[in-house]
């Protein structure tokens, strides 16, 4: 919209309209964020009552700590598994729903409902269904395959179980965008391929996936942010970071350092590192997938 | 006659040819949907079972408890309090965020003022500041203000939002310029313009933002866990954590825990099913 069509020009009124939003953003977003940066340069004792300047000391001790390095590694691996697991399954289900016309809106609602699923509920439901001794899935899995579920003690299994929960919860969000993107492809572009008698699934990855590449990029970024920032309830309710740090993701380590061990400076340094992660992801989002993405609030 | 049977034959042949494909397609969809829903369906069944029944792993019938696990969770394990707290928190954030964001978008789209672009960037940049990036000082701020364990701490940090401002701005920019011109020539004031023209024309978008915000707020876990320690002020997502802890004495009462989980899921699920149309429209707009 050009400025010529803007009907109002009172700067005072504009400021008053923007004031509530700006005040909240300054008080609860910008100020604490800046304070995070400041605190990250201090060593704190006694719940932050005593602060000693340490410069980049917190960052040095984080980057040279085996525990933090390992936490970083498992988080990145977890994000990769969750991102591509979610995309693969959502693409398949989204494509099936897109391929039928009748009742597709009933199907759509039945497929996207995990969008409303609270992560804590997702964690607690699968904690039970996949419970090593009581889980009904565990029972049939062990009956039908030689596999034994022991994720209370087995690190890689705990990692895999959390990935299953994270993917399950994120399917709804992904299917919404994939079905919308597929429906937006002009029919004329896919007609030729259809006449050539290309099989349904060949069509999916030869014709459709390249056409919805921007949506796929968008979802890669959103799912990565989700894997880094929104999987805290899963770890907290299912594994507490274990066994032997196999699921000690960055967000969980940050929480424990801040609120169980009261290392506020060290925790703030971890927040700064997470800020760098989210900044890079948002930059990539702006750069590659036209437009801007959404992270929560 | 002959031609008619021919076409019928062809139709029939085409039908036979199409049938397995369609059956496979629908079968595939139904199978995936059931697989996705199975943990929830099982949880609903288990929530009616007694602890003894739950420990018979393959017992998949409705249990002897009926709905008493639900009343037990609501009455004896404080889920009625947690649910109410979650509901109040979510409604305050929805109303507050929509109101504040409508005002901000009104200013951004319909006012000429200095540094417009910078103000917009100032709002958008907060996308880089999710709760974990500022959680330590935010908690200290709440403690300094004496807001811990209060609704102010639960709602304040969520009440302004780059996403909602961005969406309403997009929506307003799509409203025809001639309409704005008419409003200007008639000398309509900004608030009248907002309430008489913009809001009625943005109903779908407002509904969508309400749904997104309600689900997002209801599902919050980390921040309430940190800032609320008094159980009577806690929200239902963290209530699940308490329930998991207290039901673990002796044989874990999984039926009770499942009932609590179903309760904590119900409100956002109902909102999604009822309002999925505006939700879908709004979500897919924000990607553009």
TrEMBL record, chain A:
Signal peptide: none
A cellular component annotation (GO) from this entry: plasma membrane
A family per Pfam: BPD_transp_1
Record keyword Cell membrane present: yes
Tree of life domain: Archaea
Residue ranges constituting the ABC transmembrane type-1 domain according to the UniProt record: 72-285
Locations listed in the record: Cell inner membrane; Cell membrane
UniProt keyword annotations, A-Z: Cell inner membrane, Cell membrane, Membrane, Transmembrane, Transmembrane helix, Transport
Keyword DNA-binding (UniProt): no
Subunit structure: The complex is composed of two ATP-binding proteins (UgpC), two transmembrane proteins (UgpA and UgpE) and a solute-binding protein (UgpB).
Family per similarity comment: Belongs to the binding-protein-dependent transport system permease family.
Protein name: sn-glycerol-3-phosphate transport system permease protein UgpA
Organism: Haloferax prahovense (strain DSM 18310 / JCM 13924 / TL6)
Phylogenetic classification of the source organism: Archaea, Methanobacteriati, Methanobacteriota, Stenosarchaea group, Halobacteria
Automatic annotation (TrEMBL), chain B:
Membrane topology, as annotated: Multi-pass membrane protein
CDD domains from the UniProt entry: TM_PBP2 (cd06261)
Annotated TM spans: 23-46, 87-111, 118-139, 151-168, 193-218, 254-275
Lineage: Archaea, Methanobacteriati, Methanobacteriota, Stenosarchaea group, Halobacteria
UniProt entry tagged with the keyword Transmembrane helix: yes
Keywords per UniProt: Cell membrane, Membrane, Transmembrane, Transmembrane helix, Transport
BP-aspect Gene Ontology terms: transmembrane transport
Descriptive protein name: Sn-glycerol-3-phosphate transport system permease
Keyword Transport: yes
Family annotation (Gene3D superfamilies): MetI-like (1.10.3720.10)
Intracellular or extracellular location(s): Cell membrane
A Gene Ontology cellular-component term: plasma membrane
Tree of life domain: Archaea
Family label: Belongs to the binding-protein-dependent transport system permease family.
Record-linked PANTHER family: ABC TRANSPORTER PERMEASE PROTEIN MG189-RELATED-RELATED (PTHR43744), SN-GLYCEROL-3-PHOSPHATE TRANSPORT SYSTEM PERMEASE PROTEIN UGPE (PTHR43744:SF8)
Domain ABC transmembrane type-1, chain residue ranges per copy: 83-275
């Amino acid at each position: 919209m050009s400025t010529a069509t803007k009907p109002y020009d009172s700067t005072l009124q504009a400021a008053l309209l923007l004031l509530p939003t700006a005040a909240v953003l300054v008080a609860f977003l910008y100020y604490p964020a800046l304070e995070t940066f400041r605190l990250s340069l201090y060593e704190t004792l006694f719940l932050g009552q005593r602060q000693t300047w340490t410069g980049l000391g917190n960052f040095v001790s984080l980057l040279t700590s085996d525990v933090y390095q390992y936490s970083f590694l498992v988080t990145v691996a977890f994000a990769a598994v969750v991102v591509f697991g979610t995309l693969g399954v959502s693409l398949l289900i989204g494509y099936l729903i897109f391929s039928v016309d009748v009742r597709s809106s009933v199907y759509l609602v039945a497929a996207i409902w995990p969008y409303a699923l609270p992560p804590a509920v997702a964690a607690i439901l699968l904690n039970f269904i996949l419970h090593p001794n009581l889980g009904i899935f565990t029972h049939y899995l062990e009956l039908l395959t030689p596999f034994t579920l022991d994720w209370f003690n087995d690190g890689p299994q705990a990692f895999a179980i959390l990935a299953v929960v994270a993917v399950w919860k994120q399917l709804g969000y992904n299917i919404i965008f994939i079905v919308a993107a597929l429906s937006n492809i002009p029919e004329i572009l896919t007609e030729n391929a259809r006449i050539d008698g290309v099989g349904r699934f060949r069509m999916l990855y030869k014709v459709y996936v390249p056409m919805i590449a921007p949506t796929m990029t968008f979802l890669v970024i959103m799912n990565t942010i989700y894997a880094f920032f929104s999987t805290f309830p899963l770890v907290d309710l299912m594994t507490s970071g274990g066994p032997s740090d196999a699921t000690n993701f960055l967000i969980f380590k940050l929480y424990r350092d801040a609120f169980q061990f009261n290392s506020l400076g060290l925790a703030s340094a971890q927040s700064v590192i997470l800020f760098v992660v989210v900044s890079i992801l948002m930059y990539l989002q702006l750069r590659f997938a036209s437009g801007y993405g959404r992270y929560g609030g | 006659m002959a031609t008619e049977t021919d076409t019928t034959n062809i139709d029939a042949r085409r039908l036979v040819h199409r049938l397995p494909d369609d059956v496979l397609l629908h079968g595939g969809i139904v199978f995936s949907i059931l697989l996705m829903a199975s943990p929830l369906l099982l949880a609903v069944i288990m929530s009616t079972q007694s602890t003894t029944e739950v420990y018979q792993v393959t017992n998949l019938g409705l249990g002897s408890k009926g709905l008493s696990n639900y009343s037990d969770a609501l009455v004896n394990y404080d889920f009625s309090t947690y649910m109410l707290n979650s509901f109040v928190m979510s409604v305050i954030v929805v109303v507050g965020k929509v109101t504040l964001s409508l005002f901000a978008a009104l200013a951004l789209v319909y006012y000429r003022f200095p540094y417009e672009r910078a103000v917009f960037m100032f709002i958008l940049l907060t996308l880089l500041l999710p709760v974990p990036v500022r959680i330590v000082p935010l908690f200290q701020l709440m403690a300094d203000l004496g807001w811990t364990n209060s609704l102010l701490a639960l709602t304040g940090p969520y009440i302004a939002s780059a996403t909602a401002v961005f969406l309403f701005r997009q929506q307003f920019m799509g409203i025809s310029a001639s309409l704005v011109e008419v409003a200007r020539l008639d000398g309509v004031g900004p608030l009248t313009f907002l309430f008489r023209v913009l809001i009625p024309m943005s109903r779908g978008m407002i509904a969508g933002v309400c749904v997104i915000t309600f689900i997002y707020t209801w599902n919050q876990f980390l921040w309430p866990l940190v800032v609320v320690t008094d159980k009577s002020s806690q929200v239902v997502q963290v209530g699940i954590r308490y329930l998991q802890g207290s039901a673990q004495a002796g044989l874990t009462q999984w039926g009770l825990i499942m009932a609590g989980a179903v309760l904590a899921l119900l409100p956002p699920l109902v909102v999604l099913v009822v309002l999925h149309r505006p939700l879908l429209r709004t979500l897919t707009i924000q990607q553009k």
